[in-house]
Amino acid sequence: MGLTALGLICGVMLVRREKFSQFRIVPTDILPIPRIFVAFICGNLVYIASNLFIIALPFTLEAVFNRSPSEVGLLITPWALSISIMSFVIGKWTDRLPAAQICAFGLFLMGSAFLLLWLLPESASNFSIAWRVAIGGCGFGLFHPPNNRVLMVATPQGREGGASGLVSVERLGGQTMGALCVAAIFRLSGHETTICLLAASVIAFAGSILSLGREYLISLGERTRSA
Q1: Mean pLDDT throughout 199-224?
Q2: For residue 98, is it left (φ>0), alpha (ψ between -120 and 50) or beta?
Q3: Measured between alpha carbons, how far is 16 from 18 in angstroms, rounded to an integer?
Q4: Burial of 226 by CB count in 10 Å (0-12 exposed, 13-18 middle, 19+ buried)?
Q5: Which residues does 141 contact at the CB level (< 8 Å), separation at least 6?
Q6: Count of beta carbons in the 10 Å neighbourhood of residue 70
Q7: Distances 45 to 32, 111, 192, 201 between C-alpha atoms, Å
Q8: How far from the centroid of its chain's Cα atoms is residue 4's Cα?
Q9: ∠ CA(5), CA(204), CA(130), 5° rounding?
Q10: What are the DSSP calls for 208-224, one per residue?
Q11: 78 CB-near residues (< 8 Å, 6+ apart)
């Protein structure tokens, strides 16, 4: 907890310092733009939820569902496969469909898949586990192309590099927070791994609601900035 607090203090100090820097490491000049900020927060939540899921899942499969290490590896595979397939498919439609609804639906799929895994009995078959994992991967793959497009399109000309860095910060920050959440849950619950699935589901549903109200939040932020 002390190290986490120290990290947050250092992060705040870095952001304050970057505001007055000509060559920014952290793109503090574009992050306050409402459209970028909402996309950044939604992406951050997705990575937190996905890491809560993917880090805890092997432990859940082994401890709760009594699967062998080789079975665990095979049952995780649908996650990566479905992400790859869905990202390729949705990439062709990103410019034609509204990003808010696509992202919200992707997060809803993720949250539903995690919740269905949490509700599974210990006697569940491999197929019952695998298709739920695949649905979660489809939701993850469905979310990112339109969300990243929103972030890049909203970026002022000449700051595309900063926006690209922001996507990396979004990913690494969310993954780190997700890993920290898993460690905290394991420590506090005595390795009750299924709690991570429930937490991942709640965060994904929260992100879905946030994305669904994206346009309202953007308009609210723009009014606040202009006031």
Answers
A1: 86
A2: beta
A3: 6
A4: exposed
A5: 82, 83, 84, 85, 86, 87, 90, 106
A6: 8
A7: 18, 12, 22, 11
A8: 20
A9: 120
A10: HHHHHTHHHHHHHHHHH
A11: 130, 131, 133, 134, 137
Confirm if 77 and 167 have CB atoms less than 8 A apart: no
- Judge residue 221's burial from the number of C-beta atoms within 10 Å of its C-beta, 0-12 exposed, 13-18 middle, 19 or more buried: middle
Between CA 40 and CA 166 the distance in angstroms is 8
Encoding tokens for residue 54?
Answer: 């993917």
> Residues 82-129: pLDDT tens digits?
998 998 888 777 777 788 889 999 999 999 999 999 999 988 999 999
In the 8-state DSSP scheme, what is residue 97? S
For 55, other C-beta atoms within 10 Å of its C-beta total 19
C-beta separation of 111 from 142 below 8 A: no
Is the CB of residue 134 less than 8 Å from the CB of residue 82? yes
Rg (C-alpha) for the chain, rounded Å, is 19
Count of residues making up the chain: 227
Residue 129 · residue 61 · CB < 8 Å: yes
CB 44 within 8 A of CB 58: no
Instruction: Average the pLDDT over 5-34 and give the result.
Output: 81
Tokens of 117: 């895994």
Tell me the residue type at 193.
Answer: T
